[in-house]
Amino acid sequence: MQALLDATVLQQPATGVAKVTLGLYESCFDLLPSMEVTAFHRRPLNCALAPQIRSVQYASHIPNYFWRSVALPMYILRHRPTFVHFPWNGHVANHISDTTTVTTILDVLPLIIPAYFKSRKDEREYRKRIQTDIDRSHLIMTISEYSKKEIIRNFAVKTEPLVVYPGSTIKVNSQWSKRNENEGDAYFLYVGGYDRRKGLEALLEVFIKLHRNGQLHSRLVLTAERKGYFSTEFRRLVTEGLRLGAVRETGYVSDIDLSRLYSRAIALVYPSKFEGFGLPPLEAMTLGCPVITTKCTSIPEICGDAAYYVDPDDETDFADALIALQNDFELGRVLGEKGKKRSARFSWHKSARIFLDAIMKFVANEEVNKAVF
Predict the structure, then answer these.
(1) Which ranges of the chain have pLDDT less than 50?
(2) Does residue 279 belong to any structural domain of this protein?
(3) Domain-embedded: residue 229
(4) Cα–chain-centroid distance for residue 347?
């Protein structure tokens, strides 16, 4: 089996989408060692590929639009892979024939988040692009039942999207033990992007107020792939938290450092209101880090009964959760153990099997159809 992977997302630093894409293919090699994968890209990659993946940087001198609409289809036509995979919310090239097209639509959150679009025209253009991607694809994948439901609700699909859950991309390292009950420099952890939908303004408001009142003595460590302050108020809150010593910003951290941060945190605080999956809670649970989060969108589907849920719009509810996890070591231990058990449900091996079985079935059906007609 020969796969061509649109590796555009791997041109970025190692974001969640990039990690999930690479994690899936690494597990595919475990199940199907003979599989051949070519990562096709225009600009240099910023992510390390598995040794089994061949990297092809092609036509870097032409604009991205022409690369996608001309260079990519020409390469596919010349090499005839078994399937081509677009893993980053579509952008499927036109004029692809005699090759199975697989597209991952991670979510359609722009249609869920209130006032996301600046105009009706922007929303229509988004809907048209996603529908075109669906129409050009033989197989649509997504990452949660929530996302699947929203894709079906908002778009015309030929077949139901295939749910392929991500596994954790974080490795367990036994040398980093869980924090001790009496350990100093205790901290809560936030992992993810700086984005309005993540509920960060409410988190900082509550955290700073509790810190000022002396009810919290722990810090809040913020990690982010990119430090982009999405509002003047968010910038002000971060600045105030830094000045008080209540907040620390790390910027992007490697997976090794992230594993250490998870392993020694009081809890991951993930106040997001809109998620297609929510990788940080899964990473945290894998490492036995308690999770404080919301019951919004896909998050309960991932965390089950292994998280401390809060209403992100209820300041008292939020404050009670932070104080409880800071002061009740046993509560954190119980949640950490529940999280480990819950995270075991999300296996890369299982996801890779679902992915490969679906492609093999589709390719086999196509071969039968060609033979008959």
Answers:
(1) 182-183, 368-369, 371-373
(2) yes
(3) yes
(4) 15
Report pLDDT for 13. Answer: 75
Q: What burial letters (b/e) apply to 167-191, b meaning 16+ CB within 10 Å?
A: bbbbeeeeeeebbeeeeeebbbbbb
Instruction: Indicate the residue type of 4.
Output: L
- Nearest in space to 90 (alpha carbons), one of 26, 151, 46: 151
Establish if 181 belongs to a structural domain. no
153 and 232 housed in the same domain:
no
Name which of 183, 194, 287, 266 is nearest 234 in CA terms: 194
| 263 and 133 housed in the same domain | no
Tens digits of per-residue pLDDT, 44-64? 999 999 999 999 999 999 999
| CATH for 116 | 3.40.50.2000
Which residue segment(s) compose the domain that 79 sits in?
2-167+347-372
Instruction: Kindly state whether residues 204 and 119 are assigned to the same domain.
Output: no
70 and 157 assigned to the same domain:
yes
Specify the pLDDT at position 177. Answer: 54
Q: Are 46 and 131 contained in the same domain? A: yes
8 Å CB contact between 291 and 272 = no
Domains of the chain: total: 2
Kindly state whether residues 286 and 355 are assigned to the same domain: no
> Is 333 in the same domain as 257?
yes
Whole-prediction pTM: 0.93
DSSP string, 188-228: EEEES---GGGTHHHHHHHHHHHHHTTS--SEEEEE-SS--
Q: How many CA atoms lie within 13 A of 151 on its CB side?
A: 29
Question: Whose CA is closest to 143, among 112, 105, 197?
Answer: 105
Q: Give CA–CA dist 363/80, Å, rounded.
A: 13
The amino acid sitting at 216 is L
User: Residue 355, class by beta-carbon neighbours within 10 Å (0-12 exposed, 13-18 middle, 19+ buried)?
Assistant: buried
Determine contact, residues 25/51, Cβ cutoff 8 Å.
no
Amino acid residing at 303:
C
Residue 223 sits at φ, ψ, to 5 deg, of: -110, 145
| 98 and 238 together in one domain | no
DSSP single-letter state for residue 89: T
Locate 361 and state its tokens: 């079935």
pLDDT, one tens digit per residue, over 229-239 is 899 999 999 99
